[in-house]
Amino acid sequence: MSRTIFFITGTDTDVGKTVLTVLLARHLSHRGVAVAALKPVSSGERDDARALHAALNGTLTLDEINPWHFRAPLAPLLAARRESKHVRLLQVTRHIRAIQRRFDVVLVEGAGGLLSPMGNGFDSRDLIVALQATPIVVGLNRLGAINRILLVMEALPATVARCAQVVLVDPPRLDSASEANSSLLSELLTKTRIHRLPWLRRWTDSEACCRNSRVRRTCAGLTRSTVE
Q1: 8-22 pLDDT, tens per residue?
Q2: Neighbours of 1 (CB within 10 A)
Q3: Is 85 among the catalytic positions?
Q4: What is the pLDDT of residues 26-36, one digit of tens each?
Q5: Which residue in 17, 39, 85, 191 is the catalytic one?
Q6: Domain total of the chain
Q7: Which domain holds residue 190?
Q8: Which of 25, 30, 110, 195 could be a cystine partner for 9, CB 3.0 to 4.6 Å?
């Protein structure tokens, strides 16, 4: 099995990146794949990294999952500056590559949206390119989702955008936009690259969520090439 890096980015913050990363980690682990899940840079609460730590059942320490954490609930670059600290692209890529040598698949969760500054002079887009990662773009499945998703795809280098996958996270209550978004994006970006994740009220119970047939189908579709 070739070693693969999936980079989970989003149209914004709080769109479901951590939920998807946790579910993918559980799904791959259940399929017998040696998987790591990282949130290299974070700010504010450390709940996302702790959720990944729980999903991996102790395979990695919290500090391996999230080596750069800053207290202020701001973009990581600004939060780091408040502590007179710096995060550089080379540091982050070296850490991820070191983890990659131990696993078949590495899931890397970005901070905020694609262009939110993660450190000195770099964002998630720069990290995707440096790692030659496959992007998974997460967005809330509501009115405006199509524009937000297409803006992220446009911001990616063309060669990277062509392999990017999209996950629409359903809201608690679907509306006409929620039902139509995936159909139109399938026309614009090809059907096999568009996936939907159902609303999961208790997503922290990831074991139970992974038994949901729609969750299994989404995770399988995103990671098919890694387990074939």
Answers
A1: 999 998 999 999 999
A2: 11
A3: no
A4: 999 999 999 99
A5: 39
A6: 1
A7: 4-227
A8: 110
